[in-house]
Backbone:
């Protein structure tokens, strides 16, 4: 990915490598499509907080995004620990979602069973 001369061009290259279009990336980083387009065409520059977010979403080192240089040591990527934490949170959320789905299915079965019993009791009383 090296050799791209501007930050805007590097953003565009990384976005295309992930198969994202402008609106998709803009939504993921919380900016308007036109803002992202202006960054990619070098009409404007993203603020520091947006650069950090871009690097994370685009899965590229922040240093590369800023300078085009590839860090020699991947352990020096400041986003690696943050990315690992996010992945752990995602795994926990998915596990919780599965537990919730199982709980909801159980509740639905209980409600159906109780409704049948109520219907049966009403039929007997009538």
Residues:
């Amino acid at each position: 990915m090296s050799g791209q001369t501007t930050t805007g061009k590097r953003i565009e290259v990384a976005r295309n490598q992930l198969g994202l279009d402008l609106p998709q990336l803009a939504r993921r980083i919380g900016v308007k499509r036109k803002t992202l387009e202006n960054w990619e065409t070098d009409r404007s520059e993203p603020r520091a907080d947006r650069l950090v977010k871009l690097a994370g979403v685009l899965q590229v080192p922040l240093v590369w995004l800023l300078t085009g240089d590839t860090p020699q040591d991947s352990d020096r990527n400041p986003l690696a620990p943050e990315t690992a934490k996010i992945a752990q949170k995602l795994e926990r959320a998915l596990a919780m979602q599965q537990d919730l789905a199982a709980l909801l299915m159980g509740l639905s079965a209980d409600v159906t069973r109780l409704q049948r019993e109520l219907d049966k009791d009403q039929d007997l009383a009538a």
Observations:
- Residues 7-72 form a domain with the 434 Repressor (Amino-terminal Domain) fold (CATH 1.10.260.40).
- The helical segments are 7-17, 22-29, 33-40, 48-58, 62-67, 79-125.
- The mean pLDDT is 85.
